[in-house]
Amino acid sequence: MINLFLLGLPGAGKGTVSEQIVDKYHLTHISTGDMFREAMANETKVGLEAKSYIDKGDLVPDEVTARLVEERLGQPDIKEGYILDGFPRTIVQAELLEEITKKLNKPLTNVISLEVKEDTLVNRLSARFMCKKCGATYNKITKMPKVVGTCDRCGSHEFYQREDDKPEVVKNRLQVNEKMNTPLKDYYQKNGILSVVDGEQTPEKVFESVDAVLSK
């Protein structure tokens, strides 16, 4: 069984490689954003607790997020393993995750860090734009709509660029994320489960490298 945590700065290609891993290994992809939305929509006890913080504009405390992760990892669809995306973000969260996964007997087997140079990430993220209607994400360099000016998913013709995808904002965001990622890499390096993959390669080559780690 593969239980994976993917690390990488925004724009490193975590979304793309996650899809490829799910296709090949049938892992359950767990994104913290989706998990929050699902728990709040289903009005689970911990979902409602998280919502009470979000509605006030407060950060959801680590303990509540951890309970949400525990609830999600305990669900029956996680037969083949899982990919965690967006959690843990801090050492405290990593320690909480370790306790949860021990309790559920679903410990992390791999942590893969996708490494990409800052300049490449700035170029990639600044090229990103989205469909105004359905939120589908495109990229001027790597993923244009199949028909120019028309969203593949919903057929809308209106697109926009998020404020946080503008170059000056992107640089700042990357530096903040790098500060958070470095301690996590050290933590998992010490635990002996960290592998580093060159995210500068083509998406196909990135997946080959990730696949080589996972198939060991």
Account of the protein in words:
AMP binds at residues 32, 37, 58-60, 86-89, 93, 162, 173. Residues 31-60 are annotated as: NMP. Zn(2+) binds at residues 131, 134, 151, 154. Residues 128-164 form the Adenylate kinase active site lid domain. InterPro entries: Adenyl_kin_sub, Adenylat/UMP-CMP_kin, Adenylat_kinase_CS, Adenylate_kinase_lid-dom, P-loop_NTPase. With 216 residues, the chain is an alpha/beta fold. The protein has a single domain, classed as Rossmann fold. The protein is 48% helix and 17% strand. It contains eight helices and eight strands; from the N terminus they run βαβαααβαβαβββαβα. The chain has helices at residues 14-25, 32-41, 45-55, 62-73, 91-103, 118-126, 167-190, 203-214; strands spanning 2-8, 28-31, 81-85, 110-115, 128-131, 137-139, 159-160, 194-198. Strands 2-3-1-4-8 form a five-stranded parallel sheet, sandwiched between helices. Strands 6-5-7 form a three-stranded antiparallel sheet. Helix 1 (14-25) packs across helix 8 (203-214). It is globular and about 50 Å long. The chain starts with a strand and ends with a helix.
Write the layout of secondary structure elements.
Elements: E1 2-8, H1 14-25, E2 28-31, H2 32-41, H3 45-55, H4 62-73, E3 81-85, H5 91-103, E4 110-115, H6 118-126, E5 128-131, E6 137-139, E7 159-160, H7 167-190, E8 194-198, H8 203-214
Parallel strand pairs: 1-3, 1-4, 2-3, 4-8
Antiparallel strand pairs: 5-6, 5-7
In a nutshell, what does this entry contain?
The protein is of the alpha/beta class and 216 residues long. The protein has helices at 14-25, 32-41, 45-55, 62-73, 91-103, 118-126, 167-190, 203-214; strands spanning 2-8, 28-31, 81-85, 110-115, 128-131, 137-139, 159-160, 194-198. The protein has a single domain (2-116, 175-214), classed as P-loop containing nucleotide triphosphate hydrolases (Rossmann fold), CATH 3.40.50.
